[in-house]
Write a structure and sequence with these properties.
heterodimer; A: about 110 residues; mainly beta; six-stranded mixed sheet; five-stranded antiparallel sheet; B: about 120 residues; seven-stranded mixed sheet; about 0% helix; about 55% strand; globular
Chain lengths: ~110, ~120
């Protein structure tokens, strides 16, 4: 089983749609969880951290279920600029400078006009 | 000002050659990383340095040798290049906070697209 698995996608949605991405992780000792975004032929950038209580940042909502080892990202009212690959990222560490991130393969989202 | 920069951006070379990729960050971070993203877009960590000390060394062939002359620079030297080394190599950096906990955010450079022919 891969350490971090995501919906393979791709997702093609119209502008204004709501889209949800799922991710599962295999290491039950994982402590920190994130969603990164990677535009085509660009570097990954942090979109948001994921907290146990769930968290929201504008149109983006992230959820974490530790019992099921499951992470989700919900995007409401999709914009053309949301088109990108969304990477689920997990770390076994809760801190410290030797900070290893494990990335999922990513899910490609295309928002169409 | 570019926060994390890499040179070169593109590198095309033949099998068997030796090449280097350079990375510099001007964020004042103390931890730097090298990642490899293959043709299937899978991003995997290779090495990590904290204050010039190697702290993460994943299962990477000995042909890959990182070097950190100071905490703002992390270079990657690759000997005897093989076809399978073709990928995008990303450098990244992060900062431990005053309490010793690392910032959750890693800042990535623009990547070096290596093609081995």
């Amino acid at each position: 089983r891969k350490e971090v698995e995501q919906d393979p996608g791709p997702f093609n949605v119209p502008e204004g749609a709501t889209v949800a991405f799922n991710c599962t992780y295999s290491n039950s000792a994982s402590q920190s969880f994130f969603w990164y975004r990677q535009d085509c032929r660009k570097e990954p950038k942090l979109l948001m951290s994921v907290y146990s209580s769930g968290n929201e940042d504008g149109r983006f909502t992230a959820q974490l279920n530790r019992a099921s080892q499951y992470i989700s990202l919900l995007i409401r009212d999709s914009k053309l600029s949301d088109s990108a690959t969304y990477l689920c990222v997990v770390s076994p560490h809760s801190g410290g400078s030797n900070y290893k991130l494990t990335f999922g393969k990513g899910t490609l989202l295309t928002v169409n006009p | 000002d570019t926060a994390v920069s890499q040179t070169p951006k593109y590198l095309v070379t033949q099998m068997g050659n030796d090449k280097s990729i350079k990375c510099e960050q001007n964020l004042g971070h103390d931890t730097m990383y090298w990642y490899k993203q293959d043709s299937k877009k899978f991003l995997k960590i290779m090495f990590s340095y904290n204050n010039k000390e190697l702290i993460i060394n994943e299962t990477v062939p000995n042909r890959f040798s990182p070097k950190s002359p100071d905490k703002a620079h992390l270079n990657l030297h690759i000997n005897s290049l093989e076809l399978g080394d073709s990928a995008v190599y990303f450098c990244a950096s992060s900062q431990a906070t005053a309490s010793g906990r690392s910032s959750y955010e890693q800042y990535f450079g623009p990547g070096t697209r290596l093609t081995v022919t």
